[in-house]
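User: My collaborator sent over this chain with a note saying "see what the structure looks like." That's all I know about it. Can you take a look?
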Amino acid sequence: MSDIVNEMSPEEKSNVARGLKASISNPHVSDETKADAKERLESMGDTKMPQGEKDPSRVVGGLKAAISNPGIGEEGTQKAQEKLDAMEKS
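Assistant: Without extra context I'll predict from the sequence alone. Here is the result:
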């Protein structure tokens, strides 16, 4: 694997690393596959894991959508409203 990685362009390495990170973050991927992906990523020298930083404007939009969604229960709507209120205060 390392020989192949050494022959890749920086863009190709980035694409492979991105795919491995996606596998690690995907809840539908088995633990065994996640461990393999993490090992391969570490062998590439790229061990940065996704940070999960979210764009605040997208979070606000998602909360507003949840509040107005009739399929969300009363408890979910209330939690979304509380989170939205907390974000608007800060």
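A starting point for your reply to your collaborator: The mean pLDDT is 85.
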